[in-house]
Specification:
46% of the residues lie in helices and 15% in strands. The radius of gyration is 19 Å and the shape is globular. The protein contains ten helices and seven strands. The mean pLDDT is 94. The protein has a single domain, classed as 3-Layer(aba) Sandwich (Rossmann fold). The protein is of the alpha/beta class and 274 residues long.
Length: 274
């Protein structure tokens, strides 16, 4: 169901890879709510996914950009404003990558050039995106910038590896840059700490299937899906949340406030019997 929440609003969506991705579902929902946007991803990621299909469905232009490259980002912002006919109202940063995770290196045995690449892609890129938008005064007043995070930024999830550090860095950047964007431009900046979601990147984490089942049992409302997250993101892009900024917003069915649930205790007790 559409409410016209983003009618006339324009934006940039980073990171749509395939229909499993949160950015993909967000693009569909933004389109349904009347928003228009540019889709962007790194050229190598675009070759892995099906972004052209999404662009056709949403009447969006694709502008490839490496989010770690200031030159690429400056070109992206300038071209997006030209394509969309003015300043930007919303931005979704849905980017994350750990070479250590991909290569099976444990947290206690990191290869540090891989670590540096991971935080540049996953968190440093968020600062770079906002710096380019800020310097070029590319955001409309009361615009909204959202990045996707995960609760491993606050709590230990061993197999999430250095991505936990990347997400902690991401959330800090949102708060720090969000202050300046709010003070100077009346633009809000937030992160969404989402349930474990079976995206292409998420499924690359060791033990993911077991953990998503655990989180489902732990959360009183169950895990939030990619579509659920897209709906929440739409609300943050809309004028209904104009005074929400500098927040890390948990969107996880209640998982973040749970100690233990009946379902988890029952499963544990059954295991003890065996």
């Amino acid at each position: 169901m559409s409410y016209g929440l983003l009618k006339g609003k324009k934006g940039i969506i980073f990171g749509a890879l395939d229909e499993n991705s949160i950015a993909w579902q967000t693009a569909l929902r933004v389109h349904e709510e009347g928003g228009s946007f540019v889709l962007t991803n790194a050229p190598i990621a675009m070759r892995m996914g099906t972004i052209n299909e999404l662009a056709e469905k949403t009447n969006a232009k694709i502008i490839p950009a490496d989010a770690t490259s200031i030159e690429d980002l400056e070109n992206l912002v300038a071209e997006s404003m030209e394509v969309l006919g003015g300043k930007i109202d919303f931005v979704l940063h849905s980017i994350g990558m750990s070479v250590n995770v991909r290569k099976g290196r444990s947290y206690t045995d990191q290869k540090y050039d891989w670590t540096a690449k991971g935080w540049d892609v996953s968190a440093g890129s968020f600062h770079k995106v906002m710096q380019v938008l800020y310097k070029h005064d590319a955001m409309n007043e009361w615009g909204s910038i959202v990045a996707l995070s995960y609760m491993a930024a606050q709590r230990v999830f061993p197999d999430y590896n250095d991505m936990a550090d990347n997400k902690a860095f991401l959330e800090s950047i949102a708060r720090s840059f969000g202050y300046f964007f709010g003070r100077d431009k009346n633009v809000r900046v937030n992160t969404i700490s989402q349930s474990p979601t079976p995206t292409t990147a998420g499924k690359g984490v060791k033990g993911f299937d077991g953990f998503i089942a655990y989180a489902e049992k732990m959360s009183p409302l169950g895990n939030a899906s990619a579509l659920d997250c897209a709906n929440y993101t739409v609300s943050l892009f809309s004028d209904l949340t104009k005074k929400v900024t500098l927040q890390n917003l948990f969107h996880d069915g209640g998982f973040s406030n749970m100690g233990v649930s009946d379902a988890v205790m029952e499963a544990f007790e059954e295991q003890q019997k065996d």
